[in-house]
Amino acid sequence: MENTLQQKLKAGQKPIGTFFELGNPMAAEALGKTGLDFIIIDNEHGPFEAETTMEVIRAAELGGVCPLARVRETSRPAVLKLLDVGAKGLIVPDVHTVEQVKELVEYAKYAPIGKRGFCPSRKDGWGYDYPGTESVAFQMGYHNDHTLLIPQCETVGCLENIETITAIEGVDGIFVGPFDLSISMGIPGQFDHPDFLAALTRIITACHNNGKFCIYFTVNPKAIADGFAKGFDAMAYGLDVAVMIQAYRDILEAVKK
């Protein structure tokens, strides 16, 4: 499966996705029928391990929605396993320093950009997806170009280093986690605070000045259009399970009236 999120971003489209928490592969396949552009399989706050993530990735591909995954931690196994089972990109939480991001690049990108360990795996059909171009060098270059590494900017440390972080080769974009960022800034949930709005502008500017994309998360569907108006390149809306709960609540409330 091609990296359709990457293609849409390069084409200047406005992709919209959601966090995947429900855990059932059939739910991921069903989300592909909604028109969503991507899902983020949440290995940080969700119930997933690499094997389950692989099943969800397969279902997402079947449903036609691009599967990203959020890693549980900044470590080589956490990064490598999710890439090898076929995630098209990784969202990386709890980023604080430039050194941490450089370490992530080493784990997630093959040489000469990083030091990712090479092994044929599900991501490349165990080495059989590229007939006539089976060389290791081709496969390394292909996955460097088509697998997205996306640190989260959700700490003051990341914000203070955002210009340097977005300039690092191997970083493809930034994901803004507004809740934790606002908490880290000492203004929890104050998304209209001048300092928070200035931080968003700084992040977007750093990304675009370095040729990187920027994704924003919101739990308010009315804020999706506003996010694009601010200059974000893609939007992640809510958690699938929360959307489902609210949809049923709205239906039942309407029926009871």
Average of pLDDT: 94
Rg (CA only): 18 Å
Number of domains: 1
Quantity of strands, as a count? 8
- Spans where pLDDT lies below 50 across 5 or more residues: none
Q: Strands of the largest sheet, in order across it?
A: 1-2-3-4-5-6-7-8
Q: CATH fold name, please?
A: TIM Barrel
What proportion strand?
Answer: 15-25%
Using the alpha-carbon principal axes, give the shape. globular
For this structure, what is the CATH class? Alpha Beta
Q: What summary fits the major beta sheet?
A: 8 strands, parallel, barrel
Query: How much helix, percentage-wise, in residues?
Result: 40-55%
Helix and strand content put the structural class at alpha/beta
* Count of alpha/pi helices: 12
CATH superfamily: Phosphoenolpyruvate-binding domains
End-to-end Cα distance: 46 Å
**Strand and helix order:** HEHEHEHEHHEHHEHHEHEH
What's the architecture, going by CATH?
Alpha-Beta Barrel
Keywords: Lyase, Metal-binding
Pfam family, one: HpcH_HpaI
Domain HpcH/HpaI aldolase/citrate lyase: 17-247
Protein name: HpcH/HpaI aldolase/citrate lyase domain-containing protein
Walk me through this protein's architecture:
The chain is α/β, with parallel strands linked by helices. It has one domain: Alpha-Beta Barrel (TIM Barrel). Helices cover 46% and strands 16% of the residues. It has helices spanning 4-10, 25-31, 50-63, 76-84, 98-108, 136-146, 156-160, 162-166, 178-184, 194-209, 223-230, 240-256; strands spanning 16-20, 38-42, 66-70, 89-92, 148-153, 173-176, 213-218, 234-239. It has an 8-stranded parallel beta barrel, surrounded by 8 helices. Strand 2, helix 3 (50-63) and strand 3 form a beta-alpha-beta unit. The protein is globular and about 65 Å long. The protein starts with a helix and ends with a helix.
